[in-house]
Design goal:
By secondary structure, this protein is an alpha/beta fold. Among the domains are: 80 residues; 67 residues, no CATH class; 88 residues, no CATH class; 108 residues, no CATH class. The protein is built from 22 helices and 9 strands. A 9-stranded mixed sheet has the order 4-3-5-2-6-1-7-8-9, sandwiched between helices. Strand 8, helix 6 and strand 9 form a beta-alpha-beta unit. Helix 11 packs across helix 12, helix 16 packs antiparallel against helix 17 and helix 20 packs across helix 22. The protein is globular. The relative contact order is 0.11.
Length: 509
């Protein structure tokens, strides 16, 4: 995987590191270099209260580390990482040194820790499963009905993330509003449709009178409709049966559970159907099958009746051992579709998001340190060189995608009045992946053609910006800045073979 923007900014930071002297500038550059050097994808998981976030986190981890009960711990952000010992590191809000405490048996955050979210900023849960953190790092953020209830640490964490998995129990208007509110609250997070996936987490609760295969069909249809409705906010909507996925990829399901399921699955069709009608019937029905009530309760805890029925289906297809049953459950849970989408969608978007976040932080921190920097002409020149690269990266179309998609959303809702041509150009520049695509040109367009088309569009969008009402003109400004960067990136006029009349003046003005 290539990282052109991150590499470019990292090289500029390395050069600046040898030239800056003041403590503030040295620290800012060091932080940026550390962030750019860490290429592990950082995925934040967010959503409303009781949406099933922590269950999805555990399924993604392949280990039950996040607490899933309604406890104080669910109000505290948590990172998860591999370690040679199962342990929990507690980070305090008052700045005292972190405290390492025992993890729950098997690793993870105990449900009954005596810590309040008013005292603890975040946890780091360490476990001995080498899968954790190998491909991406996960942070589980607290849920809130308003989303504005996220604390400063959680907000900052999401702003540092490369991508977001937004967990929702449905994709209706309430959750659309919640996701829009989430994006507004973490406005510095560089979240765009390209690096946000929505998860419909309660597939097992959809059409619960239907058999599992029918529920999956209904869930897939709901996900396709939600993807259309939320197209300005998310790149994909994936249905996942959260509890089933958590158990399928975890270590709680044993051969004893498999043996109990085989005995229950061997019942005659009428008895088996009766067992699945209600929890009470599953717990107490058909005692002649030789499965005691405590085991049945444990199966419901791990699978619910939906998962039990899926396990019966796996057994009917020939699964015998626990591993074979779990493989069947994992396949139908939807978790593999989610993991595939994370790799397919997020890896490509990670470079501009990481570079854009690092560039924004550098610009902000160096601006705050300008009084120290101003006392040394050599350092001032070094910082100026670095900021030239920073601002170029911040104007790159790939790092401006959040603002561009906000403009698309404003147009779609009527808040950005555009004629047909301008609307088409906005769509192209927001959704294209190459300079040619962003300008509506053929894929083999020459640098000269790119420069000429960018220049022509700059002239048109200056007129658009002038004619828009004040509340809409910032969207046109974003488009103009991206067009100007495309114009500059196409190369000097004598190399690109294009004229420089109005466009050159606009890009240099």
């Amino acid at each position: 995987m290539e990282h052109p923007l991150s590499d470019r900014l990292a090289a500029a930071c390395a050069e600046a590191a040898a030239r800056v002297r003041s403590d503030a500038a040295v620290a800012a550059v060091a932080r940026a270099r550390a962030r750019l050097a860490d290429r592990t994808l950082r995925v934040a998981v967010g959503g409303r209260v009781n949406a099933g976030k922590s269950t999805i986190v555990n399924a993604m981890l392949g280990h039950r580390l996040a607490p899933t009960g309604s406890t104080e711990c669910t109000k505290i952000a948590a990172w998860f990482e591999y370690h040679h010992q199962d342990q929990l590191v507690v980070h305090w809000r008052d700045g005292r040194p972190p405290e390492t405490v025992p993890a729950k048996p098997g690793g993870g955050i105990p449900d009954d820790l005596p810590h309040s979210h008013t005292e603890v900023s975040h946890f780091v849960a360490r476990a001995t499963d080498r899968r954790i953190g190998r491909e991406f790092v996960i942070v589980d953020t607290p849920g809130s009905d308003s989303l504005s209830g996220l604390d400063d640490y959680s907000m900052g964490t999401i702003r540092q993330a490369d991508a977001l998995v937004y967990v929702t129990e449905d994709a209706g208007e309430v959750n659309r509003a919640a996701l829009e509110g989430f994006r507004a609250d973490v406005s510095g997070a560089h979240l765009s449709r390209q690096n946000v996936i929505a998860v419909l987490s309660w597939v097992d609760k959809i059409a619960d009178h239907e058999p599992p295969e029918r529920r999956r069909v209904v869930a897939a249809r709901m996900a396709r409709r939600a993807a259309r409705d939320l197209r300005a906010l998310v790149c994909e909507v994936v249905p996942v049966a959260g509890l089933l996925a958590q158990t399928a990829r975890g270590a709680d399901f044993t051969e004893l559970h498999a043996a109990a399921l085989r005995r229950l699955a061997a019942a005659d069709p009428v008895t088996r159907a009766d067992l699945l009608l209600a929890d009470e019937m599953f717990l107490d029905g058909a005692p002649e099958l030789g499965v005691d009530r405590s085991m049945r309760a444990d199966l419901l805890r791990l699978l619910d009746r939906y998962g039990v029925e899926e396990a019966f289906n796996a057994i009917d297809r020939g699964a015998v051992a626990a591993s074979a049953i779990l493989a069947g459950l994992e396949e139908v849970s939807g978790i593999n579709d989610l993991l595939s989408a994370i790799h397919r969608r997020f890896q490509a978007a990670a470079d501009p998001v990481r570079a854009g976040a690092a560039a924004a932080a550098l610009e902000r921190e160096l601006a705050a340190a300008r009084r120290q920097i101003a006392t040394d002409p050599a350092e001032r020149a070094a910082v100026a060189d670095l900021l030239t690269v920073v601002r170029t990266i911040r104007r790159d179309p790939a790092t401006r995608i959040t603002a561009l998609l906000a403009a698309v959303s404003a147009y779609e809702t009527g808040a950005l009045p555009l004629d047909g041509r301008a609307a088409d150009e906005l769509t192209q520049i927001a959704h294209g992946e190459t300079p040619a695509q962003r300008l509506g040109l053929p894929g083999d367009a020459s640098p000269g053609q790119v420069r000429a088309e960018a220049g022509a569009r700059i002239d048109r969008w200056r007129a658009v910006e002038y004619q828009l009402p004040p509340h809409s003109s910032p969207h046109a400004t974003v488009v103009l800045e991206v067009l100007e960067q495309l114009f500059l990136d196409a190369g000097p006029a004598h190399q690109a073979g294009a004229g420089t009349s109005g466009a050159a003046r606009s890009s240099n003005g």
